[in-house]
Amino acid sequence: MATEPAGASATPLAIAVDGPAASGKGTLARRLAAEFGLSHLDTGLTFRAVAAALLNSGSDLEDADAAETAARSIDLDALDRQALSTHAIGEAASRIAVLPGVRAVLAARQRTFATQGSGAVLDGRDIGTVVLPDAAVKLYVTASPSERARRRTAEMSARGEPATYDAVLADLRRRDTRDAERAAAPLAKAADAHLLDTTGMDIETAFREAVGIVERVRAGRA
Ligand code: DC
Question: Using a 6 Å cutoff on CB, does residue 109 contact ligand 1?
């Protein structure tokens, strides 16, 4: 249970949730937002929306000017998770995510989102390290590559997308490497983030752990 409604505090409450693909961070972030009465932004969708805009207009994924223009114009309150969740868009998003100008535009917009109303939960790769370094609570959610590949394969199959475990695992490893090794805001655990390894946990268990961390931090006990 939440200690107090987030709206009761004068300053917006910001919760940063980072981690690699298919770690469970998105589901946890969405549920934490509902639990604490906060808005939620899946920042991966913001990169995906930029990538989709370039793909739709036939622009080159290396065209930094076109990508920055798209980053300025996407609507953060109308990101279509369903339409943006394809494998091709995820792959393109990982490629445009290396562009520093795109990252700067999106980070500024993500920061503005986090400070509105009673606050927000943002999930992504660099929220605790770059976007919201002063977030009240930071979680770094991870799971073993094999467990993440199992989850992602099941998700894709459920959506009717062709998926084999081996291909998904190889793809996740490639994406992890690209996200962790890029020069601009690589995937990393902030020094003051709380590590939540969800390997072997079902979503309910992981959610209870995450709520516990948030409550301990807010009560000044962590
Ligand atoms: O979480 P996702 O699969 O929807 O993210 C798509 C890509 O966007 C991912 O490969 C890396 C990038 N990304 C990022 O660089 N920084 C973020 N805060 C979120 C996503």
Answer: no
The answer, yes or no, to whether any atom of ligand 1 lies below 6 A from the CB of 128, is no
125 CA to centre of ligand 1 in angstroms? 6
pTM over 0.70: yes
**CATH number, span 13-214:** 3.40.50.300
CA of 8 to the centre of ligand 1 (A): 32
Please count the other Cβ atoms lying within 10 Å of the Cβ belonging to residue 120: 25
CA-closest candidate to residue 70, choices 91, 90, 97, 39: 97
- The strand order across the sheet containing 194-197 reads 39-42, 119-124, 13-18, 137-142, 194-197
Please give the helix or strand (H or E) that residue 7 lies within, else none.
none
Asked if residue 110 has its Cβ within 6 Å of ligand 1, the reply is: no
For residue 156, pLDDT over 80 is answered with yes
pLDDT above 60 for 6:
no
Residues in the chain: 222
Distance from residue 122's CA to the centre of ligand 1 (Å): 12
